[in-house]
Specification:
rod-shaped, 182 residues
Length: 182
């Protein structure tokens, strides 16, 4: 092969390898393609015409191969884009549904808080009237207790006075008995 390049006065063409063009392909595939290309170029013989035809044949093969790979890659990208588009639309629909549920929940929460606030205000006003009634009952019971205690104090005072009277009578009787016994 080096003899072919030395006889050929044209500068050697620099071709990109398949791994440079399509980085997704594996190294093993790229090496086998390079080996196949080199074997075709090497088997062509010493003539420049056959070398050029085999080079053109190899170039056309690789161009067709690259076109097929790029077409396949485009198809895969479109499929992925469609998949992403479907996933995006699905996520968007889910987000809209969740937003509507959230809005409904917020409205329900507001209504429940309003009802709770109203109920608490009603309870407080009821509690106020209940407290007034309780205070009235308590004051009435305290008044009854006070009047009972006043009556008990009166009875106690009367009992003290009667007790004192009985003591005085008892002392007088003891004196009379002592005078009689002497």
């Amino acid at each position: 092969m080096s003899s072919l390049l030395s006889h050929n006065k044209d500068p050697p063409r620099i071709r990109k390898s398949l791994s440079d063009i399509c980085p997704d392909s594996s190294n093993a595939t790229a090496k086998s393609l390079r080996h196949e290309r080199l074997s075709r170029l090497g088997s062509s013989g010493p003539s420049d015409v056959s070398n050029n035809s085999s080079t053109n044949h190899a170039e056309s093969y690789f161009l067709r191969r690259e076109n097929r790979l790029s077409a396949r890659k485009k198809a895969e990208e479109e499929t992925l884009n469609n998949d992403y588009k479907k996933m995006y639309e699905k996520a968007l629909a889910t987000n809209q549904r969740l937003k509507s549920r959230l809005e409904t929940s917020k409205q329900e929460l507001t209504m429940i808080q309003d009802h709770l606030h109203r109920a608490q205000e009603g309870t407080l006003s009821d509690c106020g009237s209940n407290e007034l009634e309780a205070e009235k009952k308590e004051s009435w019971s305290l008044k009854n207790t006070i009047s009972d205690m006043e009556e008990q104090l009166k009875v106690k005072a009367e009992l003290k006075m009667e007790n004192q009277r009985l003591k005085d009578e008892n002392g007088a009787l003891i004196r009379v008995i002592t005078k009689l016994s002497k």
